[in-house]
């Protein structure tokens, strides 16, 4: 939403004086509504694309491996590529955002995503497939980091509601790509169609972003004009915000990492746990998809619920207890209580949209949100990348689920502990100010 600009207050100037530049016109209400609608459409479409590249490949990995003659080792590396890419490229996002601006960088990111998805679906080279997959994932990494700051900038009084909308959309995109990539591939007779179709969805997201980027550029030019007209009131350039210097930044990073560690591990191994409990492969897959399906409406409302409270420590604790109950239930009675554990996991995993909302709530400025989001996600996804691998190693070594579930419970303890630190109301800028005063 492009904010209104104060009308000009020009008076008759003395002879020979240079009048100040005219203030930009005040947009009418309909223009503001159209602008808000375009920004919201861009946010939703970006969110819809934030996991399709990952879950579509997961669903078709066996076919892709056979088609490109990948080794088992390389296929395993590719499964770790999303989390590693999110960590690496997410860390670069604040620097790029300072140079290009958030909306223009999002436009570039979605363009890179669309191109990467298209090329990897067409190539016959394993090396090109890996490189273009990494390129596509870099676009997703940028979107992961920037969306909380875009929400805060354009919808500062509706952060919970808009975060809920895009969190739900992210889950919908994740589940849709997982469920439809294989049928699309079978219908077209090639795995390439099952992967390539998602490039079209990324291309659709580019359309509103082009308009929003132009609106943002016009807003920046208007701000420059105002600053030139009133130099005494011009704000000083903002210094670089470093979340790594704060306890809040590290607590958020470990919270994000511990939650994602458990979520990635569950998404990778839950179906196998149910198969070991005696379910068929089809039913085990349905139970896994049930976690995502039940989580869709929860993802919509969780950020709005969190935004109603200044302190989220009770909510974070309740979600940790629910998740712990699901883990213990999967270990003790995986078959008889399967539906209950799936439902509890879906509720527990709503910690993720809660974290997304906290990324915006724990900073006062867009720059602070970008810095906090980038640091939390870059560190967090490095931790998350180890989840499926470690659980797999323990399962293969022990032939049982006691040790893997024990590790998940340990990660949950870290999640709850860091969540209590993050849930206390304060902001990144507050801690940085306190740090500067002590250093000074």
Task: Record the SSE blueprint.
Layout: H1 29-48, H2 52-68, H3 72-100, H4 102-122, H5 126-154, H6 159-188, H7 191-229, H8 247-276, H9 281-307, H10 313-332, H11 338-348, H12 351-361, H13 366-398, H14 402-423, H15 428-439
Helix pairs in contact: 1-5, 1-6, 1-7, 2-3, 2-6, 2-7, 3-4, 3-5, 3-13, 4-5, 4-7, 5-12, 5-13, 6-7, 6-9, 6-12, 8-9, 8-12, 8-13, 8-14, 9-11, 9-12, 10-11, 10-14, 12-13, 13-14
Your description of this structure?
The protein is mainly α. The chain is 80% helix and 0% strand. It contains 15 helices and no strands. Helix 3 runs parallel beside helix 5. It is globular. The chain starts with 28 loop residues before the first helix and ends with a helix. The N terminus is likely disordered.
Q: How many β-strand stretches?
A: 0
Cα end-to-end separation: 38 Å
The arrangement of helices and strands along the chain is HHHHHHHHHHHHHHH
The biggest beta sheet is recorded as: none
What best-fitting shape do the alpha-carbon axes yield?
A: globular
Give the low-pLDDT segments.
1-29, 231-238
- Rg estimate, integer Å: 23 Å
């Amino acid at each position: 939403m492009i904010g209104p600009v104060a009308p000009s207050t020009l008076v008759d100037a003395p002879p020979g004086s240079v009048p100040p530049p005219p203030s930009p016109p005040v947009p009418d209400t309909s223009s503001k509504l159209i602008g808000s609608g375009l920004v919201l459409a861009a946010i939703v479409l970006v969110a819809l694309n934030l996991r399709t590249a990952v879950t579509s490949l997961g669903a078709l990995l066996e076919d892709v491996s056979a088609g490109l003659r990948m080794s088992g080792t390389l296929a395993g590396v590719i499964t770790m590529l999303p989390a590693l890419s999110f960590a690496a490229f997410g860390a670069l996002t604040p620097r790029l955002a300072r140079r290009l601006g958030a909306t223009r960088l999002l436009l570039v990111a979605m363009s890179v995503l669309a191109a990467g998805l298209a090329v990897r679906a067409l190539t016959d080279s394993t090396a090109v497939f890996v490189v273009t997959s990494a390129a596509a994932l870099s676009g997703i990494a940028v979107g992961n980091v920037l969306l909380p700051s875009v929400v805060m900038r354009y919808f500062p009084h509706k952060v919970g509601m808009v975060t809920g909308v895009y969190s739900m959309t992210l889950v919908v995109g994740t589940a849709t790509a997982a469920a439809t990539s294989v049928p699309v591939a079978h219908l077209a007779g090639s795995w390439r169609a099952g992967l390539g179709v998602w490039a079209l969805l990324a291309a659709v997201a580019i359309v509103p972003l082009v308009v929003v980027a132009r609106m943002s550029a016009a807003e920046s030019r208007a701000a420059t004009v105002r600053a030139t007209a009133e130099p005494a009131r011009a704000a000083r350039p903002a210094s670089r915000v470093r979340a790594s210097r704060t306890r809040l930044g590290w607590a958020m990073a470990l919270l994000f990492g511990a939650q994602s560690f458990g979520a990635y591990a569950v998404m990778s191994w839950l179906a196998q746990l149910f198969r070991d409990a005696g379910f068929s492969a089809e039913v085990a897959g349905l139970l896994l998809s049930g976690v995502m399906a039940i989580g869709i409406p929860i993802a919509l409302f969780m950020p709005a619920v969190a935004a109603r409270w200044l302190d989220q420590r009770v909510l974070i604790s309740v979600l940790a207890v629910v998740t712990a109950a699901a883990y213990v239930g999967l270990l003790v009675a995986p078959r008889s209580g399967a539906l209950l554990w799936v439902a509890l996991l879906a509720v527990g995993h709503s910690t993720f949209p809660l974290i997304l909302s906290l990324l915006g709530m724990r900073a006062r400025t867009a720059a602070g949100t970008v810095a906090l989001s980038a640091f939390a996600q870059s560190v967090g996804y490095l931790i998350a990348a180890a989840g499926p691998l470690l659980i797999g190693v323990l399962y293969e070594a022990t032939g049982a689920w006691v040790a893997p579930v024990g590790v998940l419970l340990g990660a949950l303890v870290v999640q709850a502990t860091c969540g209590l630190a993050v849930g206390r109301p304060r902001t990144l800028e507050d801690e940085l100010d306190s740090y500067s005063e002590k250093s000074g």
